[in-house]
Amino acid sequence: MKRAGIHVTTRSLRYRKEKVFDRNNAPIFEADGKQKVVTTPQEKGIDVRLALDLVSSARQKQFDVALIFSQDQDLQEVVQEIADISKEQDRWIKIVCAFPAGPNASSGRGIDKTDWFRMEQDFYDKCLDPRDYRPKR
Q1: Strand arrangement, sheet containing 115-119
Q2: pLDDT beneath 70, residues of the chain
Q3: Cα–Cα distance for residue pair 50/68, rounded to 1 Å
Q4: Which of 105, 101, 48 is nearest to 74 (CA)?
Q5: pLDDT digit string (tens) for 75-111?
Q6: pLDDT of the residue at 119
Q7: C-alpha pair distances (Å), 6 with each of 1, 2, 43, 63
Q8: What's the mean pLDDT when you consider all of the chain?
Q9: How far is it, in rounded angstroms, from Cα 100 to Cα 70?
Q10: 80-108: string of b/e by CB count within 10 Å (b at 16+)?
Q11: If DSSP states are collapsed to H, E and C, what string results for 91-104?
Q12: Closest alpha carbon to 81 in 125, 126, 50
């Protein structure tokens, strides 16, 4: 996307090790007797970066439609700020929240005060980045 002239901001993922428990909160063990541990990626600071980019770009009239691939309700505050900017600038700005839908989706709703674009599992899977961003060992 950078080659196409799109400004791209990246953040390194942090990885957190978590012990695994069953439904009864009993530890799950590996064949070697050690408790099972999984490594979970965790993004930090991306919501703030997204919010700042949206507000800055709206103020500079760089978009009319923003498509947010997140269901984080914390972003509803930036949606309200964009609505205020739209009124101040007397122009139309649309915010759309895209998210996975279907029986396996973790949530069936988008960010409040946005239009919702429900993506079926097949479409959503085709949008996923297959790159493994974990540091090489």
Answers
A1: 65-68, 94-100, 115-119
A2: 1, 134-135, 137
A3: 9
A4: 48
A5: 999 999 999 999 999 999 999 998 888 777 777 788 9
A6: 87
A7: 6, 5, 21, 13
A8: 87
A9: 10
A10: eebeebbeeeeeebebebbbbbeeebeee
A11: CCCEEEEEEECCCC
A12: 50
* Separation of first and last alpha carbons in the chain: 28
Burial (0-12, 13-18, 19+ Cβ within 10 Å), 30: exposed
Residue with tokens 């919010």: 51
Residue 59 carries which side chain, given as an amino acid letter? Answer: R
Query: What is the DSSP secondary-structure string of 52-85?
Result: HHHHHHHHTT--SEEEE----GGGHHHHHHHHHH
pTM: 0.65
The bridge status of strand 37-42 relative to strand 14-19 is antiparallel
Task: In whole angstroms, give the CA distance from residue 82 to residue 111.
Answer: 13
Let me know: does 59 contact 85? Beta carbons within 8 Å. Answer: yes
Cα 117 to Cα 108, 120, 122, distances in angstroms: 11, 10, 14
Which residues have a Cβ under 8 Å from the Cβ of 7 and sit 6 or more positions away?
A: none
CB 85 within 8 A of CB 55: yes
How far is it, in rounded angstroms, from Cα 97 to Cα 46?
16
